[in-house]
Structure formats: structure tokens, C-alpha cells
Design goal:
By secondary structure, this protein is mainly beta. The protein is built from one helix and five strands, in the order αβββββ. It is globular and about 35 Å long. It starts with 5 loop residues before the first helix and ends with a strand.
Length: 83
């Protein structure tokens, strides 16, 4: 996943062009694919309250389960099928 585009394509929602540096993140292989976590900068969430933590679980060949957590907010969970 290329997170470096978020501050430019989704400015104000998923980052800021003024703070577009992308920190390294670890990808872990699982029995069915891989998993990785990405933390968006402080104030990037819909409520602007703090960093949003995105946990991705890729199940090969074509499904991503995304779990989004924001401080003081409920957890949002989505499942995507890739074509």
C-alpha cells in the first residue's frame, strides 16, 4: 500500500502536505497473506482528535480487511474485494 499519496490526494482528511513524510512500517507474512499497520498523523481523523490507526489484513488472492481506530471514537471495520 502506498500511503505517501494520502496527504496530497486526501488533504485535510488523511494528512497534510506540510507533513507528508512517510514513516517505515512492518509487513508480517501470515498463513493466508500478510498484515501491516499504518498510523496517520495527529489530527487526521474525522473528529480531528488524534492519530488514526489502520490495521490491514490481506488475504490472498483478493481480500483486504481494514480496521480503523481513532482515539475516543468507535472502531470502523471494512472488507474489500480486489478485482
Amino acid at each position: 500500500m502506498d500511503f505517501s499519496r494520502f496527504p496530497f490526494v486526501h488533504e485535510g482528511l488523511l494528512g497534510s502536505r506540510d507533513d507528508a513524510f512517510e514513516s517505515p512500517y512492518e509487513v508480517t507474512e501470515t498463513d493466508v497473506g500478510m498484515t501491516y499497520t499504518h498510523v496517520m498523523p495527529v489530527g487526521s481523523g474525522p473528529s480531528g482528535s488524534g492519530p488514526m490507526r489502520h490495521e490491514y489484513n490481506l488475504c490472498l488472492p483478493s481480500t483486504i480487511h481494514l480496521r480503523i481506530m481513532e482515539p475516543g471514537a468507535s472502531i470502523l471495520s471494512r472488507c474489500y474485494s480486489l478485482a
